[in-house]
């Protein structure tokens, strides 16, 4: 979680929308085949809703959601625009080094991941950084598909449905 005082300034909503609009390829580092994992839920959403080419990175898996999984960022078939990270905080320095080496333009740290040192180092290397935000939630927010439970109900209303 972000500290109460911070030296790092997150991108504004307008800037995050710009990131999403510029992005064509997403590498999901720490993607999981387990449907109970957040990365699997995000991957399912991105594959079914967003117009991104999505690549999965996990050295312990070979296939997720019927797609190939790559052992590292440098094994991907191309350079990702955005690296979406689902790893523990201790793994962030390694992920940052790989992200810089592969030439990605955005480092996106999922909900719960916040490291100002990593953000500063990434920005010094020319990366755009988003921390403690979910790519799925942000995409849905800007594309009219956000519901309290995090999915698209198909109904545009400020009132809750009666059950």
TrEMBL record:
PANTHER family xref list: COA-BINDING DOMAIN-CONTAINING PROTEIN, CYTOPLASMIC PROTEIN-RELATED
Source species: Intrasporangium chromatireducens Q5-1
Protein name: CoA-binding protein
Stretches assigned to the CoA-binding domain: 19-113
Taxon lineage: Bacteria, Bacillati, Actinomycetota, Actinomycetes, Micrococcales
InterPro entries xrefs: CoA-bd, NAD(P)-bd_dom_sf
